[in-house]
Amino acid sequence: MNADSAHHEDARGWLDQALAGGTSVLFDWTVVLACARLSTMARLFDNPLSAAQAADQVRAWLEQPGAEIIRPAVDHLHRVAELLTEARTRGNLNDAHLAALSLQARLTQAFSPLVLTPLRRTVRSRVSGSVDRPARSRPSS
User: Fold this and answer.
1) Alpha-carbon distance 78 to 18, whole Å?
2) How far apart, in whole angstroms, are the C-alpha atoms of residue 109 and residue 115?
3) Is 25 helix (H, G, I), strand (E, B) or coil?
4) How far apart are CA 20 and CA 69, in angstroms?
5) What's the predicted TM-score (pTM) here?
């Protein structure tokens, strides 16, 4: 969404290819809404998106055949608290939320702030273990 970013082309290429290539791309509302919010901020961008443009971009992602919204499992709060304790960290609630979703979905690759936190090691060590499959939903039209 930020064409001026040094990472834009790589990220855009990966996302376009993943959405078109028959792979499921799981989206979490926390991340989707944060992306839309940040992309509309004039203090961050010389040419921020309008709210309508941000919504159109999100809608375009979610309408792709490989796009899915992941919903937390019933025991999500327990998983988040457990991860925070195991990683010996605090205050990283969004990261722990995303880590719990990653474990739930048995993800091997995730693009999120998660890769910068102590939770990364915890998630990687657990991904090979047995976890429940995620509850997923298709976006409603």
Assistant:
1) 31
2) 10
3) strand
4) 16
5) 0.66
